[in-house]
Amino acid sequence: MAQASKEAEFRLYYWPGFPGRGEFMRLLFAETQTPYVDVFEGKTKEEAVKMGYGKGKKHFAFPVLEHGDIYISQSSVICRYLGKKLDGGRLYPKSEKDRLQAEMIMGGVDGVVEEGLRAWHAINTNASYYEQKEATQPFIEYYKTKRLPKWLDFFETLLKENFKKTGKLLFVGDELSWVDICVFHAIDGNLFECPEVFEKEPTEYVKKFHNAIRERPNIKAWLKSDKRTKFTHTGPIV
Predict the structure, then answer these.
(1) Burial bucket for residue 60 (CB in 10 Å: 0-12, 13-18, 19+)
(2) Do 156 and 189 share a domain, yes or no?
(3) In terms of Cα–Cα distance, which of 202, 207, 200, 205 is closest to 145?
(4) Are 183 and 109 in contact (CB under 8 A)?
(5) Which InterPro entries does its entry note (predicted)?
(6) Can you tell me whether residue 151 is helix, strand or coil?
(7) Are the beta carbons of 65 and 22 closer than 8 angstroms?
């Protein structure tokens, strides 16, 4: 399991207390056994707000990654960058075609994550789920019955097509890539929050993929570790 260290060259800024989008990066660090500093670990949300974005540069929202003089935000940008940098770039697809495919799939990850978060926070994105629990139920129901099934079909189709070509339960080519780890987190959070949808929809390949990534030694160790925050039942991946 990747251990946080004050000497680590990577610094991750993300809200404490739940996995969220910061978990994309934590899983990539875990898979590659890369030390990093989780800047807000052990802090409250209020303390994180006061600490801000580190160097004082303004970003729209967390997560933010600091690596030397690189200081970037937006989940897809950070994850692609980490795919290039971590463990000699072994998670970065080798061909341009596969790299573009990975970025396209990450666009889908961003889409399903955003739709899920907005369904559970449909009235006020800045308020907690519990402050709007009753009012959000129609939006959550729509997400579960209309939107999530479409996203699962998207991921199922991509996995099935790549499996036919490579014999591997992966999204891009025949080697694990950064986008596989990111899709895993999106699936993991939705499976936790909406298990009934996975039972109703044809998700054979998605379920096998999820199980395979979950059982990878470094991922498995991270998921069982005390440092890994748990899902909160306040929305997918949250």
Answers:
(1) exposed
(2) yes
(3) 200
(4) yes
(5) Glutathione-S-Trfase_C-like, Glutathione-S-Trfase_C_sf, Glutathione_S-Trfase, Glutathione_S-Trfase_N, GST_C, GST_superfamily, Thioredoxin-like_sf
(6) helix
(7) no
- Quote the pLDDT of residue 126: 87
If asked whether residues 51 and 155 sit together in one domain, one would say no
Q: How far is CA 210 from the centre of its chain?
A: 13
Q: Tell me: do 85 and 123 sit in the same domain.
A: no
Burial label, 217 (beta-carbon count in 10 A; 0-12, 13-18, 19+) = exposed
Q: What is the CATH number of the domain that holds 36?
A: 3.40.30.10
CATH number at residue 181: 1.20.1050.10
Choose among 160, 165, 222: nearest CA to 188.
222
Query: Average pLDDT for consecutive 10-residue bins of the chain (238 residues)?
Result: 60 95 98 96 88 73 93 96 98 97 98 97 94 97 98 98 98 98 98 97 97 98 96 94
* Distance in angstroms (rounded) separating the CA atoms of residues 10 and 47: 21
Token representation of residue 219: 């991922």
CA atoms within 13 A on the CB side of 86: 27
Does 52 reside within a domain? yes
| Structural domain span for residue 26 | 10-89
Q: Report the C-alpha gap between 232 and 234 in whole angstroms.
A: 5
The pLDDT assigned to 3 comes to 47
Give a yes or no: residue 221 inside a domain: no
Comparing CA positions, the residue from 97, 12, 5, 106 lying closest to residue 59 is: 12
Q: What is the DSSP letter of 30?
A: H
Q: Establish if 64 belongs to a structural domain.
A: yes
Structure pTM? 0.94
Gap between the Cα atoms of 10 and 35, Å rounded: 7
